[in-house]
C-alpha cells in the first residue's frame, strides 16, 4: 500500500512513521514535511532509508500533487501545533492548518484514495468543567490553534459529504513520549529540570489534561486506517486526567530536583481548564489504550534524560528566542 504521511518529521508523525515501518513492511511510505522549527530529520534517523522524504508545504499545490501521486492512504499530521505560539502570532496556523488541509483535500478529489485520515484534536471541543465530550458534542474552540484545527476538521467532513473524499477524522487528547518538541509542557518541564531551570506552571497549575502515550495514539490511527468507517469521527483518549501540578511534581521527584523549581507564572490567555473525552465509540470498534500512566511518564522522563544529544541542540537554537519572548511576559 502507498501511504503519504504529512508532518512525518514532527513528534507524532515521526513516531507513526516508525510504527508503520515496523508493523507494515509492505507499505511504501512518503513523508511530506516543510521542516518548520518543529520538524526535525533527526526524528526519522533510524528509518530514513525505509521511506521517501519530500520537503514541501501542504499549502503548496505542486508539492502536494507530487507527494500524493499514486497514494492510496493519506494521514495528515502536518500542522502548526503550539497553542502559545498561536496566541503570539496565528498567521501560520491559518495558512497550514486550514489552507493546507484544504489543498490536501482538493488534491485528494483528483486521486483514487482509499482513506484520508485527518488528525484533528480534542481541543476543537473547548473546555469542559465536568463530564466528557462525545463525537456529537458541539465544537467550541477557544484559541487560534484550536479554531484553525476545527476549520480543518469541518473542511475534511465537508469534502466527505460533498465530494466523496474517503475521510476519517480523529480527535485525540494530549500526547507525551519521545521526540516531542521541548516547548510543550512535559518535555519542557523535564528538560528545564535537567538544566536546573525553573518550571513555569501557568495560573494555579490545576488545569486538567487527559494524557495518552504517543505510541497509543499511533496504534489507534493505525487501527482506524484498517477498521474506521468513512465519514466518521473518532475520539482517542488516554483515560488519564491529571492536573498539571501533579505532573510537575512527578518530574522533579524522579529527577531528584527540589519542588522549589516549580514556579507559578501568569496564566495563558483563554487557558482551557479541562479536556475530557468519551472514547466509547473507538472502544466499541475494538481499540483501547494502555493504562499505566505513571509507568509511561517514568519511561518518558528517562528517555529525555538519556537523549540530551537530541534536545540540547533544539533548545540552543530557534527555541531560545521563542522561550525568551514567551516567558518575558509571564515570569
Ligand atoms: P509537531 O509540531 O511536533 O509536528 C508538526 C509537523 O508538521 C512538523 O514536522 C512540521 O515541520 C510539519 N509542518 C508544519 N507545517 C507544515 C506545512 N505547511 N507543510 C508540511 N509540513 C508542515 O506536532 P505534533 O504534536 O506531532 O502534532 C501532529 C498532529 O497531531 C497535528 O495535526 C496536531 O494538531 C495533532 N494533535 C496533536 C496532539 C498533541 O498532544 N501533540 C494531540 C492531538 C492532536
Ligand atoms: O489536547 C490536544 C492538544 O494538546 C494538541 O492538539 C496540541 O497540539 C498540543 O500542543 C496540546 O495542547 P495543550 O495546550 O494542552 O499542551 P501544552 O503542552 O502547551 O500545555 C499542557 C498544559 O500545561 C496546559 O494546561 C498548559 C500548561 N503549561 C504549558 C506550558 C508550555 C504550563 O503550565 N506551562 C508551560 O510552560
Number of strands: 12
Largest beta-sheet characterization: 7 strands, parallel
Biggest sheet, strands in spatial order?
3-2-1-4-5-6-10
Bound molecules: nicotinamide-adenine-dinucleotide, 2'deoxy-thymidine-5'-diphospho-alpha-D-glucose
Look at the helices and sheets and give the structural class.
alpha/beta
Give me the Rg, rounded. 19 Å
H/E element sequence: EHEEHEHHEHEEHEEHEEHEHHHH
The amount of beta strand, in percent, is 15-25%
How far the N terminus sits from the C terminus, by CA atoms, comes to 50 Å
Instruction: Average the pLDDT over all residues and give the rounded result.
Output: 97
The number of helical runs is 12
Indicate the low-confidence ranges by residue numbers. none
Residues in helices, as a percent range: 40-55%
Describe the protein's architecture and organization:
With 331 residues, the chain is of the alpha/beta class. It contains twelve helices and twelve strands. It has helices at residues 11-23, 61-68, 83-88, 91-109, 144-163, 185-194, 214-227, 244-255, 280-285, 293-306, 308-315, 318-328, and strands at 2-6, 28-33, 52-55, 73-76, 115-121, 167-172, 174-176, 199-202, 208-213, 233-236, 241-243, 262-265. Strands 3-2-1-4-5-6-10 form a seven-stranded parallel β-sheet, with helices on both faces. The protein has a three-stranded mixed β-sheet with strand order 7-9-11. A two-stranded parallel ribbon has the order 8-12. It binds nicotinamide-adenine-dinucleotide and 2'deoxy-thymidine-5'-diphospho-alpha-D-glucose. Nicotinamide-adenine-dinucleotide (NAD) is lined by residues 6-7, 9-13, 32-36, 38-39, 57-59, 77-81, 96, 100, 119, 121, 149, 172, 174-175, 181.
Amino acid at each position: 500500500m502507498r501511504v503519504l504521511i504529512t508532518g512525518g518529521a514532527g513528534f507524532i508523525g515521526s513516531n507513526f512513521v516508525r510504527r508503520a515501518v515496523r508493523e507494515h513492511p509492505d507499505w511504501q511510505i512518503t513523508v511530506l514535511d516543510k521542516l518548520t522549527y518543529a520538524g526535525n530529520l533527526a526524528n526519522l534517523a533510524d528509518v530514513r532509508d525505509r521511506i521517501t522524504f519530500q520537503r514541501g508545504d501542504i499549502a503548496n499545490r505542486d508539492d502536494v500533487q507530487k507527494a500524493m501521486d499514486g497514494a492510496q492512504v493519506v494521514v495528515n499530521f502536518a500542522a502548526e501545533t503550539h497553542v502559545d505560539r498561536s496566541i503570539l502570532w496565528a498567521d501560520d496556523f491559518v495558512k497550514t492548518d486550514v489552507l493546507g488541509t484544504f489543498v490536501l483535500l482538493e488534491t485528494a478529489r483528483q486521486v483514487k484514495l482509499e482513506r484520508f485520515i485527518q488528525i484533528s484534536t480534542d481541543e476543537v471541543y473547548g473546555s469542559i468543567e465536568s463530564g466528557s465530550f462525545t463525537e456529537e458534542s458541539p465544537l467550541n474552540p477557544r484559541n487560534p490553534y484550536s479554531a484553525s484545527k476545527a476549520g480543518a476538521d469541518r473542511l475534511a467532513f465537508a469534502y466527505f459529504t460533498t465530494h466523496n473524499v474517503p475521510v476519517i477524522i480523529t480527535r485525540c487528547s494530549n500526547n507525551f513520549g519521545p521526540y516531542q518538541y521541548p516547548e510543550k509542557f512535559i518535555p519542557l518541564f523535564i528538560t528545564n529540570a535537567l538544566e536546573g531551570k525553573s518550571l513555569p506552571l501557568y495560573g494555579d497549575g490545576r488545569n486538567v489534561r487527559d494524557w495518552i502515550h504517543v505510541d497509543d495514539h499511533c496504534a489507534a490511527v493505525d487501527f482506524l486506517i484498517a477498521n474506521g468507517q468513512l465519514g466518521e469521527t473518532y475520539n482517542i483518549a488516554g483515560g488519564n486526567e491529571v492536573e498539571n501540578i501533579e505532573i510537575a511534581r512527578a518530574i522533579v521527584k524522579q529527577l531528584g530536583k527540589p519542588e522549589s523549581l516549580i514556579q507559578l507564572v501568569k496564566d495563558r490567555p483563554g487557558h482551557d481548564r479541562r479536556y475530557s473525552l468519551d472514547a466509547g465509540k473507538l472502544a466499541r470498534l475494538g481499540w483501547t489504550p494502555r493504562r499505566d500512566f505513571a509507568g509511561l511518564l517514568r519511561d518518558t522522563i528517562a528517555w529525555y534524560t538519556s537523549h540530551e544529544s537530541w534536545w540540547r541542540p533544539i533548545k540552543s537554537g530557534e527555541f531560545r528566542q521563542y522561550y525568551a519572548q514567551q516567558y518575558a511576559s509571564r515570569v
